[in-house]
Design goal:
16% strand, alpha/beta, TIM Barrel, single chain, 359 residues, 5-stranded antiparallel β-sheet
Length: 359
Amino acid sequence: MTSANTTPGLVCAHHHLYSSLARGMPAPKIAPHNFLSVLENIWWKLDAALDHYMIYWSAALGAAEALLSGTTAIIDHHESPNCIEGSLDVIHAACTDIGIRVIPCYGVTDRWNDDGRLQEVKASSPITRGARLGFAETERYLATGKPAMVGVHAAFTCTDETLETASQLSERFQTGVHIHVAEGPDDRGAESRLQKYAKDNWLIVHGVHLREPIAGTIVHNPRSNMNNAVGYARPAQWKNRIALGSDGIDSNMMSEFQLAFVAGRANDISFSPDLAWGWLFNGSQLVPETQNDVVTWNYPHMDSSWHIAYTTSLHVTDVSINNEYVLSEGSLTKVDLGEVRRKAEEQSQRLHHALAMSE
């Protein structure tokens, strides 16, 4: 039951918890000039440098900040090509220690050749060793019975064999596939390769350049799309269920709702905050347990999308998950936030040093 100053737990339907350590990282020596160069010169170098310590503390920091913003479940998409085995256990452990729910996946890809170098991927090429290791980690984790999905980076970095394997694995474990689709121009037409596999339990992330309908929940990430200059996705054009994600920027889903409204209004003056409000709470259909979580806010109109769309002073005071307070009077109850931030900063410095050495 909720009151005027409470909501159910919020869901981040697409996160990259490892990006918590990216804040303050040195600018790449080669300035990105398009979306693909952002991936090549920033994110693909970052995920290749991760180890278990970095993965744990980045997840812990992201999870802690999620609770502080009223998010009680994270659907995470993880990649660490040089530290695959056990990575999903590490993310689960970090989130459990903080007290938040997590549904992780490992984003398999064929973009790394068997010698560990980036390569251009052809659909007809054979599956790579890295993709096989990603599937092995996925299958091992799914076999534990913990909630998880089958992760795929994106169609343009995967062979047909990899996409087929992901589909088969998801069906065997009766879970969905979590995949970036048509985020940037390099992945235009991805839906044509995925149509025969996609099902309603898939997460179709971004969909900025979708040209045809595809089965699954479309996860809209307006802040990330603006940050990467890939365009406005216009999710309202599709009949799919729409949910909101952060794409790793943070876990503040109320902020994501507010920007989803602004982006929608910028595209169409008739766009109502009620529509983006529905997208925000569609996340609870992906993680139904969050409907029983209780988030208490410092604002007395949490039942009104029109209020929240124009309010900038929202703060969470308390969060209850499974009838246990994991945030009380603004403080985490299971861990020391200061220690989490210190440990995360240590790993951030290690990561940034590794990136500088790799240039």
